[in-house]
Amino acid sequence: MDRSSLPDLICPAGSLPALKAAVDNGADAVYLGFKNDTNARNFAGLNFDQKTMADGVRYAHGKGCEILMAINTFPQPGRVDDWRAAVDAAVDLGVDAIILADIGLLDYASQRYPQQRLHLSVQGSATSYEAINFAHREFGVRRAVLPRVLTLAQVENVIKNTPVEIEVFGFGSLCVMNEGRCWLSSYACGESPNTVGACSPAKYVKWDKQPGQMETRLNGILIDRFADNEPAGYPTLCKGRFDVQGETYYALEEPTSLNVLEILPEIVKIGVKAIKVEGRQRSPAYVTQVTRTLRAALDALASESERYHVKPTWQAELSKVSEGNQATLGAYNRPWR
Amino acid sequence: MNQGFTIPKFQLPGFVSRLGQKLPQWPHAVALTTALNAAVKMKLLPEDSLAAMEGKTFLVQVIDTGGQAAFTYRGGFFRPLFNPAGSPDLAFRANLSAFLQVASRQEDPDTLFFNRELSIEGDTELGLVVKNMLDAIELPTFQSLPKLPLHLPFGSR
What residue segments make up the domains of chain B, in order of their start? Predict the structure, then answer.
């Protein structure tokens, strides 16, 4: 297979060292966000201020790597100007694309900066080609990131019916996968990714270590209880164990990570334009490990084509960094629709 | 990053911890705060993160060496705490190998947390501030390191 027909590898960065790790280990593009609530990873101490952002853009562009700016939360009442200012700043920085979710903001960006490349964020929750074609027609969106709810056949159907490039998730922590429409975090603490840019904000999270076990609480609500050697997950409601009719189990979703190495040839074959890695909240070490592994897999696919097989070392590296130490193909291979 | 040298996961034998607990703990706190103050002096730590740490107390406990360091951040300096009273605002606990793997950017703290090799207790948001602050440090080249020791602002609350 020709290397130029490979999808782009899109990697996360929450800091300058993480950005450099992504660039140096083979990312085609790095996505990031400002240090405020205009993006969906608004965590204490994470993300880029103007200076580190400018340094990051310079570093990436110097090595032929693109920068995609996530401004993918929804403007809050009375503060629309903060989100518009973020779009203005991204354009000033010369980013290669802006990833937006809100329709009003897409309208602003497309009117004001008609030349700026726009991507539809996964938070925009467009799962059908009709929704994606609407964003293309109205705002000139050139790429859409699909929520992790579609089977591979459904992804293929979307690709066949839209001129918009399609980006899918290839690795990273999975939640209940209802991106852009999930209010579980708000149910527990009144704040969610759409509104404040964080699911289960840290100020509501309590890890309570007791002899032989650890309890996780979100705003006082008991989410899970782990024995000492049991793998843990992020403190989200969707990954909690709950008492349902007398039985305690993961009622919504287990702590797990998506990993598409096994179906990489199919993903490339149906015409996916970009593969995204989740994890802007993770450290440079994670970005290094995941980027170099997926780069190796994509390069192997280009050079070995039909003989492509998943190497045990790749799986070992990815399972180690997985949430709950386990991985899944998620919705891609589910028999139901 | 870390090419050619990796820190394996290991656990020191039990007697090390039993012995370590009997040794004075203040040298750990002095060493750690000296290193942190060097980082402050070199402007490696972002000011908004430092502001969030003002007046907070921290405990870093190395389980298998039996060593621990208690310190606080106040008025622009990290200061050792020799007689910490009550629970710290934030405590990190792990074996030596896990701390070394994090410090050398070989492993991600979330990975170690998922695997239950690193425990974080207390103010979770403060924990995130510290973690993200350490992640954001651009590791300096050797030539730019200042001569140690720097200021040793001894004192306790």
Answer: 32-136
